[in-house]
Write a sequence for this structure.
């Protein structure tokens, strides 16, 4: 593993819960790939998780990866909370079930083959790639609405 793949991910939700979308940008050696999707009834945190999951699941071999997100929930979950949750049988420090356990487990599996560095960037602060994935997440919601109106 020598070349780095950059993954930028974001989630959006109109209402929480409500209709939501996720967007991902993968960058590798000058190549870019955009992915996005939506769900009719979800939460912002689930969409943030889906962005990271889909980005990592799109990789076809073990890679060095830098994942950039504007979600402190995703970054903290992956860099701080996950080992403790797993050690406590997917319970929080207050012994409550971990919210979004299904997606945390899917993200954990998606991370396994890779060497990942997690980065946080402030949302809506002019970071080009973060603004791009935010537009993709919202485009996914708009397209879902357009399809349902047909």
């Amino acid at each position: 593993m020598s070349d780095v793949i950059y993954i930028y991910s974001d989630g959006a939700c109109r209402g929480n819960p409500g209709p939501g979308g996720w967007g991902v940008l993968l960058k590798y050696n000058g190549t870019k790939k955009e992915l996005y999707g939506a769900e009719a009834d979800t939460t912002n945190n689930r969409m943030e998780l889906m962005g990271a999951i889909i980005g990592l699941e799109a990789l076809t071999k073990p890679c060095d990866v830098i994942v950039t997100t504007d979600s402190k929930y995703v970054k903290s979950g992956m860099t701080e909370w996950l080992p403790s949750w797993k050690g406590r049988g997917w319970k929080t420090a207050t012994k409550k079930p971990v919210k979004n356990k299904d997606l945390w487990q899917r993200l954990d599996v998606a991370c396994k083959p890779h060497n990942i560095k997690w980065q946080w960037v402030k949302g809506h602060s002019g970071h080009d790639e973060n603004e791009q994935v935010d537009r993709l997440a919202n485009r996914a919601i708009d397209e879902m609405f357009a399809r349902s109106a047909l």
In short: The longest helix spans residues 128-149. The chain has a mean pLDDT of 96. Strands lie at 4-13, 18-28, 31-42, 64-69, 115-120. The two ends are 46 Å apart (CA to CA).
